[in-house]
Write a structure and sequence with these properties.
The chain has one domain: 3-Layer(aba) Sandwich (Rossmann fold), CATH 3.40.50.720. It has seven helices and eight strands, in the order βαβαβαβαβααβαββ. The chain has helices spanning 12-23, 35-45, 57-69, 99-124, 142-145, 159-177, 204-215, and strands at residues 3-6, 27-32, 48-51, 75-78, 131-135, 182-186, 226-228, 231-232. An eight-stranded mixed β-sheet has the order 3-2-1-4-5-6-7-8, with helices on both faces. Strand 2 (27-32), helix 2 (35-45) and strand 3 form a beta-alpha-beta unit.
Length: 235
């Protein structure tokens, strides 16, 4: 049976991805920073709760030991992330962006992703068909953000898009370093979740589609790519 860890999975896209993968027969570790919320969510889905704060070395190391003791890992879905909205759920615009603003988002979206991937790589490398899915964003695309015809072009923030562009580069470099692991970045689309104050225009069921699809790729599947539900998208 395929063993899968999804970070930030007690709600939103992570929760829906967990639901779909449990239904597909995966043994799912439902990762959550809040142990009690994680326990309730896992109980609802028939998943295994896993306390993991991706910004904390000790928490991630302990989570890796738990998963190792449970039999190992085949799929890692790096879903946990933040957007860092300010007062009134507003995006921090360029003029108000500080180093601390950037640091806060990068600690979770970039450093947390690397911390988690690094900790679970030994387990993934023992798998017969290892997969990593990095949940990115359409706002990570330099091509789209530079195109006045793209909806994302008018997003005013710096920190969140920059953090997800970093995730894309990390994806490419990991994929080259570990050719036996299918490692891809995905763009779920503008999904209504707590991340954006539920302002998204599609449901979590729609948003989770590409995450689930890439979590289930086989050994001959793509790697080092950037995909949305329609297929590859420009960097």
């Amino acid at each position: 049976m395929t063993s899968t860890l999804i970070t930030g999975a007690n709600k939103g896209l992570g929760f829906e991805t967990a639901r779909r993968l449990v239904a597909a027969g995966h043994t799912v570790y439902l990762g959550s920073r809040d142990p009690e919320r994680g326990r309730r969510a896992a109980e609802e889905l028939g998943a295994r709760p896993l306390a993991i704060d991706i910004t904390d070395d000790a928490s991630v190391a302990a989570a890796a030991k738990t998963v190792e003791a449970g039999g190992g890992l085949d799929v890692l879905v790096n879903n946990a992330g933040i957007e860092g909205r300010g007062a009134g759920n507003s995006v921090t615009v360029a003029a108000d962006t500080t180093a601390d603003t950037m640091r806060g988002l990068f600690e979770t979206n970039v450093f947390g992703l690397v911390r988690t991937t690094h900790a679970f790589l030994p387990l993934l490398r023992r798998s017969a068909a290892p997969v990593v899915v990095n949940v990115s964003s359409g706002l990570a695309s330099l091509t789209a953000m530079s195109d006045a015809g793209s909806p994302g072009h008018f997003y005013p923030g710096i920190a969140y898009p920059a953090s997800k562009t970093a995730v894309n580069m990390i994806t490419v470099q990991y994929a080259k370093a570990f050719p036996d692991i299918r490692i891809n970045a995905v763009e779920p689309g503008f999904t209504a979740t707590d991340l954006n104050g539920n302002t998204g225009v599609q449901t979590v069921e729609q948003g989770a589609e590409i995450i689930v699809r890439m979590a289930r790729v086989g050994r001959d599947g793509p790697t080092g790519g950037y995909f949305d539900a329609q297929g590859p998208i420009p960097w």
